[in-house]
Write a structure and sequence with these properties.
The chain is mostly beta strands. It is built from two helices and 31 strands.
Length: 263
């Protein structure tokens, strides 16, 4: 059964799976596929047509939750259990894996590839051609850029590798790679590559120490790698791998487009 609010407009060509709910005043355009048991809040635009796409549909995986006033363009794909805050914008040609979470007022500019179990807090901005690995955290007001000499035509994407954490209000400049399990401190401006397992801070950001030297508030327990102690919201099978010491485990990528995009 599909539950569509009387004020919503769903194009007859849109493909809506079973047990989907669509809220008041939401528009679902024709070039859209919505997976089973997904919920779309009020005042959303889903599958906005754009000449910048490739003609493919917007595909929302099963068991997803898109909250009110969010806008998704066509020609993007999201794995199961996508979750958004309110007023999120995602442009065309964005490919994301399983259980991607986008906080309120998140803005993804398109042509981006995002792995499994990635977490964006509120007000995150991600520029075009960004590639983000699996289990990455971007905290509030993080800005990932692509224009080396703004305003100009070149777009040089950033790479943020698996398990990296980018703290609040940090800025990642075009072409930068943030290595796996690295930590970018709050308000840092990162203009050079960050080696794996290291912490950088400052403007411009410089290497401070190995991230593993930072402790939790007890002053004893290593805060990084974060998955040694933080497990909330992750599947039991992932947590079990972490507890066994496999701290670089990545959830299997099953979507062929995502597999190709992430190399």
């Amino acid at each position: 059964m599909i539950n569509i609010h009387p004020t919503a407009h769903v194009d007859s060509k849109a493909q809506i799976d079973q047990d989907v709910e669509i809220g008041p005043f939401t528009i679902v355009y024709s070039n859209v596929v919505i997976g089973a048991r997904s919920r779309i809040g009020s005042h959303c635009e889903i599958g906005v047509p754009t000449a910048l796409g490739d003609g493919s549909p917007l595909c929302i995986g099963s068991d997803s939750l898109i909250r009110s006033h969010s806008v998704f363009y066509e020609s993007s794909m999201f794995g199961p259990r996508l979750v958004t805050g309110h007023r999120v914008t995602v442009r065309e040609r964005t490919i994301a894996g399983e259980n991607f979470q986008i906080g309120t007022l998140g803005d993804i500019q398109g042509d981006c590839t995002i792995g499994n179990f990635v977490r964006f807090h509120s007000n995150v901005f991600v520029a075009k051609k960004t590639v983000i690995g699996h289990f990455v955290w971007l905290f509030p007001y993080v800005v990932v850029t692509d224009d080396p000499t703004p305003p100009s035509d070149p777009q040089i994407g950033c790479l943020i590798e698996d398990y990296a954490s980018v703290a609040a209000a940090a800025v990642i400049l075009p072409g930068v790679t943030v290595g796996k399990h690295a930590l970018v401190a709050a308000h840092a401006c990162v203009s050079k590559n960050v080696p794996p397992y290291m912490m950088v801070a400052g403007v411009p950001a410089k290497i401070v120490c190995e991230a593993a030297k930072i402790t939790l508030l007890d002053g004893v327990t290593a805060a990084y790698p974060w998955n040694t102690h933080f497990h909330r919201g992750y599947p039991d099978e992932v947590v079990a791998r972490w507890k066994d010491g496999d701290l670089e485990f990545t959830w299997p990528v099953t979507h062929p487009t995502l597999m190709h995009s992430m190399g």
